[in-house]
């Protein structure tokens, strides 16, 4: 049995949420300019300032911990504890005034996700999942422990993905096989969809073409709420995982979805 996440790490994560909000919220819906990175994805000064601030907090509290961030790369990647940061997940949403962007914070211990945070500051929702502590959904009204719901049949499942453009070729065909078997296919949730899964109001999230900072924070949130999250082959997720992930609130639903994704075309 894995040992629980130390409280000091959770305390730091909570302070990081507050620090990120102090930068992202004043810049939201301000027609903030942007640049295009080499991969043609946008970045704003708010992305860079937020990640820089989060790195400062980690360095001050745990200077021996590693850090991997979307904007400033990796430091001490081989450390026993490694933080993985996405300062603004959904930069396009942030830039265009859509409130469903988020700050993602994860901590891995010996390569395994230990702590994860999804903070959606514009709508006031935060999820924190930590090994041995369960998953908490925090709003202005307080915080509560949340749990995934039972959904053993794909025919009754609500599935989220950020956009169908995430999939091409064989992956697109695989996703379409799965999509055709569920009750509701829904788009545009990005990180927020994983919080809904943990809350027990959605059943599946299937995505592709992701980087580790896009999803490692979600793993403890989903699993500590009673769900499962793996790659498309059913393997655990870590620093060396690829870009295709599946999260499910019900293990039976997870297995059925994996079977469809891996079915010969």
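^ Assign residues to that structure.
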């Amino acid at each position: 049995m894995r040992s629980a996440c130390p409280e000091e790490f959770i305390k730091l994560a909570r302070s990081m949420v507050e620090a990120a909000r102090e930068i992202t919220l004043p810049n939201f819906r301000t027609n903030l300019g942007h640049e295009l990175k080499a991969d043609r994805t946008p970045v704003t000064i708010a992305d860079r300032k937020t990640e820089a601030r989060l790195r400062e907090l980690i360095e001050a509290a745990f200077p021996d911990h590693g850090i991997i961030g979307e904007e400033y790369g990796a430091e001490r990647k081989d450390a026993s504890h490694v933080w993985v940061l996405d300062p603004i997940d959904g930069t396009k949403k942030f830039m265009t005034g859509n409130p469903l962007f988020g700050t993602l914070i994860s901590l891995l211990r010996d390569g395994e996700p230990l702590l994860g945070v999804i903070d959606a500051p514009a709508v006031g929702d935060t999820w924190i999942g930590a090994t041995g502590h369960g998953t908490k959904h925090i709003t202005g009204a307080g915080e509560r422990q949340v749990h995934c719901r039972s959904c053993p049949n794909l025919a009754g499942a609500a599935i989220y993905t950020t956009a169908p453009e995430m999939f091409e070729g064989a992956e697109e065909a695989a996703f379409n096989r799965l999509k055709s078997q569920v009750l509701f296919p829904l788009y545009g949730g990005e990180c927020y969809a994983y919080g809904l899964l943990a809350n027990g109001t959605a059943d599946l999230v299937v995505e592709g073409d992701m980087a580790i900072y896009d999803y490692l924070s979600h793993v403890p949130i989903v699993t500590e709420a009673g769900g499962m999250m793996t790659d498309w082959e059913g393997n655990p997720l870590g620093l060396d995982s690829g870009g295709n992930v599946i999260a499910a609130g019900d293990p039976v639903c997870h297995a059925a979805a994996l079977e469809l994704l891996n079915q010969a075309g």
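Residues 20 and 50 are 6 Å apart (CA to CA).
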